Amino acid sequence: MKIGAQLYTVRKYCEDLKSFGESLKKVADIGYKYVQVSGTCGFDAEWLEEKLRETGLKCAITHTHPDRIKGETLGVIAEHNTFGCDYIGIGGYDLRGKGVAAFLAEFMPPAKEIKKSGKLLMYHNHASEFDKRNGVTLFESLAAKAPAELLGFTLDTYWVQAAGGDPVWWINHLKNRVDCVHFKDMSYDGKMAAVGEGNMNFPAIIAACEGAGTKYALVEQDECGDQNPFNCLKKSFDCLTALGL
Q: What pLDDT score was predicted for residue 7?
């Protein structure tokens, strides 16, 4: 399993191409070899390919605007081909308001095109997906109804925990569908923390990921309080390498 940095963590340092490029170098200097591109300014695929090559980084997955995934599917695929990324991610969807059936109707057609290209559409969860309908969480309903070959899951450990779920159970339950997992810790007061600075059981999470076929452990910390987010990324990286990744 490979460690990556979710650039959403440092989104405030990626608001223009100059700072975005500088942030990629800082992430690489920490020791990361992989990134998830999410929350940054707009960019051309060729520009990103060049910056990744310069820094020695590889893009594991993106979060791409849902409207582009639906309306510009072939263009999105071509862009991901340019910068060498096999996973096209959806950062979130209002399953509580719109429902699972609506999501499937909107995204299974582009998911088929994405699959034909050799890539995979990925769904990232927050806490709201664990709301229940007739005793079944919306997340479980989505996983059961979406074909595994068309939809994977970027499981977010923090949001599972925040929703009252067990990250290890869900990683095991979604075995072979969680190629990318967001590693994000939770402190005693419910706040997001660098991996190792909260109270989540990351040795067990890592073991579950390895058993589930996870390829990328992507460090993310949406909010870093008064800490520098690059320092938070380094703390998480150091913790995970100490744990054997």
A: 98
Only one residue has tokens 């990103």, namely 48
Q: Which amino acid is at 67?
A: D
Rounded CA Rg of the chain: 17
Question: What was the pLDDT predicted at 42?
Answer: 97
Q: What are phi and psi of 191, to 5 degrees?
A: -80, 155
Neighbours of 239 (CB within 10 A): 18
Whole-number Å distance between alpha carbons of 194 and 220:
8
User: What pLDDT, in 10s, does the model give residues 59-111?
Assistant: 999 999 999 999 999 999 999 999 999 999 999 999 999 999 999 999 999 99
Cα 63 from Cα 123, distance rounded (Å): 9
Tokens of 90: 């959806």
- Planar angle of CA 201, 33, 174, nearest 5 degrees: 45
Q: Which residue's structure tokens are 């050799």?
A: 118
Query: Do 132 and 175 meet the contact criterion of CB atoms below 8 Å apart?
Result: no
Domain annotation for the chain: domains and CATH numbers = 2-242 (3.20.20.150)
Q: What would the two tokens of residue 120 be?
A: 């995979």
Question: pTM above 0.70?
Answer: yes
Contact 191, 223 (CB under 8 A): yes
Buried b (16+ CB within 10 A) or exposed e, 144-155: eebeeebbbbbb
Q: Give the whole-angstrom CA distance, residue 236 versus residue 231.
A: 9
